[in-house]
Design a protein that fits this description.
Chain A is an alpha+beta fold. Helices cover about 40% and strands about 30% of the residues of chain A. Chain A has five helices and eight strands; from the N terminus they run H-H-E-E-E-E-E-E-H-E-E-H-H. The longest helix of chain A has 29 residues. Chain B has a five-stranded antiparallel beta sheet, with helices on one face. The chains are: A alpha+beta, B alpha+beta. Chains A and B meet through helix 2, helix 4 and helix 5 of A and helix 4 of B.
Chain lengths: ~150, ~300
């Protein structure tokens, strides 16, 4: 599997130059998970972001009764784990592989190495993260408004 | 070691000399690994055989003690059975006397009843009392015979078991002996496999030393290092591929870079210097172009 091709298709890396994508491909690490395996738990230290390359993952939170509730299902080209990377807080939810899946992982240290080599490219990644977070916030606002 | 520029390092890594050295090193490492596995296997076999021999020896000793226990128990039971037999003969003697006495009383009773002798009642009482004693004596005889029979049968069983266990013990001693001989024979093979392993490791060390001098690099075990002349970084070339244990996926014989203080703890891909002439307008384009010109009408207004 060509990691650069995978990265190019993610919204997280829109507008990045080929050489930037190439370096990110070298800095990213492929990890495979079995269906049902936990990628990370709510409360874990968040030091990496993930991109889905194959399969699906579920984002889970426990409801009032303690039962895990699926907040979202993410598939190919989706990414997650970016919030902890930005706000340096612990993981806000649990992510579990819904099926056997392959994820590309970028640690904060590897992203830092990228930022030293490609300032503009790194800025684009943060802009892209902000765009996605902004979009999610708008969606949350819209849902909230519907409930009020 | 002299500090080198990236093109110099790339030239070394791409050279025929480096390739042939790396191929030889890969083969030598593979041979060392195989020698190590072979040595481990032989050692495992030796330990296994020694352990089996020890276990057989221990079981043989246990069996020997157990056969002795059975033989002792058998002798004890034989003595007890004889004692019961003697006791039963003694009681049979008493029974015989009692039987004669009862017969005499029966004759006297018959005679007294025929003659309407007033002593007939007393004789009858005597006869009944003595007959009861005779019955008790016979019951005791039968009980002693039964006990004697049980002891005798158990004694024979113990004796047979003692013989069987003794034979087992002899077989186990023989197995232990055979196991010890096999382990000793295999031990000679471990010395050979240890020598082969040492030679294979020596070949790897030789090649690493050769690499150190031929390529003017720092060589430890798995990486070659050159101080970078352009900056304070270090160029690193792994001698293996690994996708799991480092911060990035490593490919053998690829040039990476790292900081002097962190070493291979944090590796980075080496990037070609960016062309300074290129003007990057991506952020300008994003922030300054394609923005809505007219305000959307407020819904709540």
């Amino acid at each position: 599997m060509n990691k650069a091709e995978v990265l190019q298709k993610s919204r997280l890396f829109e507008n990045l130059l080929p050489e930037e994508i190439e370096m990110l491909a070298e800095l990213s690490v492929m990890r495979r998970y079995k269906g049902g395996e936990v990628v990370f738990e709510k409360g874990d230290v968040g030091d990496s972001l993930f991109m889905v390359v194959e399969g699906d993952v579920e984002v889970l939170l426990r409801d009032g009764s303690g039962e895990p509730k699926v907040l979202a299902t993410l598939g190919i080209h989706d990414f997650f784990g970016e919030m902890s990377l930005i706000d340096k807080e612990y993981r806000s939810a649990t992510v579990r592989a819904k099926s056997d899946c392959a994820l590309l992982l970028l640690t904060h240290e590897n992203l830092h190495a990228f930022s030293k080599a490609f300032r503009e490219g790194f800025t684009w990644i943060t802009v892209n993260i902000a765009r996605v977070l902004s979009q999610r916030l708008r969606e949350t606002n819209r849902r909230l408004a519907e409930k009020l | 070691m002299k500090a080198k520029q990236l093109p110099e390092v790339r030239e070394i890594v791409n050279s025929e000399l480096f390739r042939s050295w790396f191929d030889a090193l890969t083969k030598a490492r593979l041979a060392a690994r195989e020698a190590s596995l072979r040595h481990d296997e032989v050692l495992t076999q030796v330990h296994l055989m020694e352990f089996r021999a020890e276990l057989a020896q221990k079981k043989a000793m246990d069996a020997l003690y157990r056969s002795g226990d059975y033989e002792n128990a058998s002798a004890q039971m034989q003595a007890e059975a004889s004692e019961l037999e003697n006791k039963s003969l003694e009681v049979v003697g008493q029974f015989e006397k009692q039987r004669v006495m009862c017969t005499e009383l029966w004759v006297a009773l018959t005679k007294a009843e025929e003659q309407n002798d007033p002593r007939a009642k007393r004789i009858k009482d005597d006869y009944e009392r003595e007959t009861a004693k005779k019955t008790l004596l016979w019951e005791e005889v039968e009980s002693l015979w039964a006990a004697s029979l049980a002891k005798n049968l158990a004694m024979i069983e113990n004796r047979a078991k003692g013989k069987r266990v003794r034979k087992e013990s002899e077989q186990l001693f023989a197995n232990a002996e055979q196991g010890s001989r096999s382990a000793a024979a295999l031990k000679a093979e471990t010395q050979e496999s240890a020598r082969a392993l040492e030679q294979a490791e020596e070949a790897v060390r030789d090649l690493m030393n050769k690499g150190r001098t031929q390529f003017d690099a720092v060589v430890h075990e798995d990486f070659l290092y050159w101080a970078a002349r352009e900056n304070k970084l270090v160029y690193v070339v792994p001698l293996f591929s690994d996708s799991e244990h480092y911060n990035i996926e490593l490919t053998a014989c690829t040039v990476y870079q790292c900081e002097r203080t962190r070493g291979v703890e944090f590796l980075e891909p080496v990037m070609e210097p960016q062309k300074a002439t290129r003007v990057d307008t991506r952020l300008d384009d994003f922030f300054l172009k394609d923005r809505p010109k007219v305000k959307r009408e407020k819904q709540d207004a």
